[in-house]
Amino acid sequence: MAETIKAIEPFRFYTRLHLSELTGLKAATLSELLELIKTVSGASIYHHTHRFLQQHQHLSPEPPNDFAYWVSNVLGERELGELLASIDIIQFTSVRALRERIVTVIEEYLNKHPSSKNKFVNPGAEFHFIKSNSFIFPTNHVAGDLKGLADNLRKVTIDSIYYHIFEARLRLEKGENDLSLWIEKEVGDKALAEKLSRLDPYTFTLEALRKKLVNLVEKSMS
To answer: At which of 131, 147, 177 does a domain end?
Structure first.
């Protein structure tokens, strides 16, 4: 059993309440979609790239991209839809960078296929922009060492798991998940911090991700 290292600053788990809000903005053509993607809030970009993971995490580990779905299945531009769907979200550490990549993919496609620029959908089939509002609350779960971290990871809600792994890294632009940051800084276990950092959370359901995190932390203590 590895020596237990007590953290100077304990890890407090937070949780989130998620509410979706209609923006009133909609697109009927690729040109309109592109311009709105450039200007809508980051909360809207976040919603449309993470909606499925937030709302249906128990059904599938693969969160679909709303832009890719609409472009392929409603507008009928399947080639562009595939390009948008292939964007690897794990590569991005900010919503701003993710937005820029989506814009670039659409612009490059339109340069090659200018006739697709003004292709439109019938009224009622437009892409409606929604934004994701999160309200963050502290929980009573606090970890002072790795054992406490593993124990609390078993107990907290999946909303708490989501907040510390996904939202902290991308939407809050920390560039890293909260667990890795705390483990390296407060516990000094750089190897474990790197393992959690290299983990692709988008390939797990949230419950499967919880189990994986607990497993990695417990293995590091053995």
So the answer is: 131
CB-based contact 133:19 (threshold 8 Å): yes
**From CA 93, how far away is CA 97, in angstroms rounded?**
7
Strand, coil or helix: 93: coil
pTM for this prediction: 0.82
- The 10s digit of each residue's pLDDT in 171-186 is 767 778 999 999 999 9
85 with 106, same domain? yes
The domain in which residue 170 lies consists of: 11-15+134-221
188-207 CB burial, b ≥16 within 10 A, e <16: ebeebbebbbebebeebbbe
Count up the domains in the chain and report the number. 2
Q: Are 216 and 185 in contact (CB under 8 A)?
A: no
Cα(83)–Cα(174) distance, integer angstroms: 27
90 and 166 both lie in a single domain: no
Burial class of 172 by CB neighbour count within 10 A (0 to 12, 13 to 18, 19+): middle
